[in-house]
Amino acid sequence: MTNERWEDVDRYIVELFVAPDPALDGALESSRAAGLPPINVAPNQGKLLHLLIRAAGARSVLEVGTLGGYSTIWMARALPKDGRVVTLEIDPHHAEVASRNFENAGLSGRVELRLGRARDSLARLEAEGAGPFDFVFIDADKQGNADYFEWALRLTRPGSLIVVDNVVRDGAVVDAESQDPAVQGTRRLNDRMAREPSVSVTEVQTVGTKGHDGFALALVLG
């Protein structure tokens, strides 16, 4: 199969199962207009996050890497009215675009955006006694994924789910000699998760509009 075929299948899936939505579509358009990189999750992947959160009965979500807030909107909408998403973003421009998107989606009161280095924000969350979070989505710089996973363990509870995006890297993750920092960061994450007895982990390859990649799903056991 070619990338074009993968994209055709994704469009077919989205047309069947992801209804047009002014807030979500507007978030993508405003992100494009603001010059944000087109690295948000695909619509069917956003709905997967939404369904995982609903299936888990989650009430609190931690997101590492906001970008324009597209995935944040999907996740916030999966929560009950008293639920909350804390999302972390390092880039002030991205955060500004995301904040407008949250407001347009009517979710400003359910989403807390924290600006700054993720490691610093995660440390502050722990110091504040935040959490435990029921669901964590990690989709930021891949070099930091192993660190973000460590923090996720400290900020969750038995039964929490941790999802990490972009763990296949067009298949390059199998290349131990790769000089790509994102590939090496992903391999460090995978090695760390494989050694951690308090989680049960699998990874799934995906193809589609985002090319050949995949995600990790970790259940915190305690």
Provide a descriptive summary of the structure in words.
- The chain is an alpha/beta fold and 222 residues long.
- The protein has one domain: Vaccinia Virus protein VP39 (Rossmann fold), CATH 3.40.50.
- The protein is 43% helix and 22% strand.
- It is built from eight helices and seven strands.
- The protein has a seven-stranded mixed beta sheet, sandwiched between helices.
- Helix 4 links the parallel strand 1 and strand 2.
- Helix 2 packs antiparallel against helix 5.
- The radius of gyration is 17 Å and the shape is globular.
- The mean pLDDT is 97.
Descriptors:
seven-stranded mixed beta sheet; 222 residues; 8 helices; 22% strand; alpha/beta; Rossmann fold
Secondary-structure blueprint of this entry?
Layout: H1 3-17, H2 22-33, H3 43-56, E1 60-64, H4 70-76, E2 84-89, H5 92-104, E3 111-115, H6 118-127, E4 133-138, H7 145-154, E5 156-165, H8 181-195, E6 199-206, E7 213-220
Helix pairs in contact: 2-5, 3-4, 6-7, 7-8
Quick overview:
The chain has about 220 residues and is α/β, with parallel strands linked by helices.
**Alpha-beta content class:** alpha/beta
CATH topology annotation = Rossmann fold
Total of helices: 8
Q: Describe the biggest sheet?
A: 7 strands, mixed
The chain-level mean pLDDT equals: 97
* CA(first)-CA(last) distance: 41 Å
Query: What is the helix content?
Result: 40-55%
Compute the CA-based radius of gyration.
Answer: 17 Å
Instruction: Give the name of the CATH architecture.
Output: 3-Layer(aba) Sandwich
Number of strands: 7
Strand coverage percent: 15-25%
CATH class: Alpha Beta
Q: Given the C-alpha coordinates, what overall shape results? A: globular
For the largest beta sheet, what order do the strands appear in spatially? 3-2-1-4-5-7-6
CATH superfamily: Vaccinia Virus protein VP39
Show unreliable segments.
Answer: none
Task: Output the helix-strand order.
Answer: HHHEHEHEHEHEHEE
Number of domains: 1
